[in-house]
Design a protein that fits this description.
Blueprint: H1 16-26, H2 29-34, H3 45-56, H4 62-72, E1 99-106, E2 116-123, E3 129-135, H5 140-154, E4 159-162, H6 183-190, E5 194-197, H7 205-224, H8 230-248, E6 283-285, E7 295-297
Parallel strand pairs: 1-4, 4-5
Antiparallel strand pairs: 1-2, 2-3, 6-7
């Protein structure tokens, strides 16, 4: 009986799905290289996929871009990164219940302008960017301007959560004079906004992680728009914040009545007599809802 010829070029059976996946990844590789993926070498896969679609009209799934960047050595898979251990903390329930604030000193304009500081306000319940402001340095007056813009845009939060920088806390144990408040802390006290200081950067991890995200995404956005000044950057952040929140903000666990529906009134704390003999009016929470962040004042007694 004659022997059957043995073929060596027969395609092995099985693993057809892997073959299709490999071809799907390698097929657009030349097109991606042609359109300049190396210009996005320091981008994350998601952001790189967005910019390839917006600026070059090349629609690729972010996983495809991820595999191409891994193959080119631009991206390290999460499984190969060293593990990180964090103590979990539940989010606050309501928008405006706790707002984490921090200043991030960074080369925001890369080599196009000197380094500066970005003041970041992040809501703890939703991870929404509430306010961004570029300033020369992290100072009390810079926080005054940023906080005023926040209050005009969103109303009063229940509390601000910050680090123990000298803007927020008197760090000298034997400080003489004063009432134990910094200028910024005194302003929050008069506005009836609680000021909480974290014992570590991990405790306010939401704003710390946001700083890292902004140092990636915002720096690239400023580069692509050729923005090289703080004034132009402050004019652009409203567009960036709206787009960022639409993509990444989370809904709060509990809803409450909007601040705009409560009667806005000036707030004072304490009942000690002032310099002119008048007494401050005591503040109490608005009775419309338990979690309302609006505050109302009750008539003061005495002259």
């Amino acid at each position: 009986m004659p022997e059957l010829p043995v073929t060596t070029n027969r395609k092995p059976r099985g693993n057809s799905g892997h073959d299709k996946a490999e071809s799907a990844v390698t097929m657009p590789e030349s097109a991606v290289t042609f359109t300049g993926i190396r210009n996005y070498a320091d981008f994350g896969p998601t952001l790189a996929a967005e910019k390839l679609r917006e600026r070059h009209g090349l629609s690729l799934a972010k996983e495809t871009v991820r595999q191409l960047m891994i193959g080119a050595g631009f991206w390290v898979p999460r499984k190969l990164r060293p593990p990180k251990v964090h103590q979990p903390r539940n989010r606050r329930a309501c928008l405006g219940e706790l707002v984490q604030i921090d200043g991030s000193d960074h080369a925001w304009f890369e080599d196009r302008a000197p380094a500066c500081t970005l003041l970041v306000f992040v809501d703890d319940a939703t991870s929404r960017l509430m306010a961004l402001r570029f300033v020369p340095t992290e100072s009390a007056f810079a926080y005054f301007e940023a906080t005023r813009a926040y209050l005009e845009g969103h109303g009063k939060p229940v509390a601000f959560y910050s680090d123990k920088a000298s803007v927020f806390r008197v760090n000298r144990p034997n400080a003489t004079g004063g009432d134990g408040y910094t200028q910024f802390g005194r302003a929050l006290f008069e506005l009836n906004i609680d000021s909480l200081c974290a014992n570590s950067s991990q405790a306010k991890g939401r704003v710390e992680r946001m700083n890292g995200t902004l140092q990636d995404r915002l720096v690239k956005e400023l580069r692509l728009r050729r923005i090289s000044s703080q004034a132009d950057a402050n004019a652009f952040v409203a567009v960036f914040v709206a787009d960022f929140n639409a993509r990444f903000a989370k809904p709060p666990r509990s809803d409450f009545k909007p601040i705009a529906q409560c009667a806005p009134m000036r707030t004072w704390r304490g009942s000690s007599p002032g310099a002119n003999g008048a007494r401050y009016r005591k503040a109490s929470r608005c009775s419309t809802t338990r979690r309302c962040t609006c505050w109302r004042t009750s008539p003061s007694t005495g002259a």
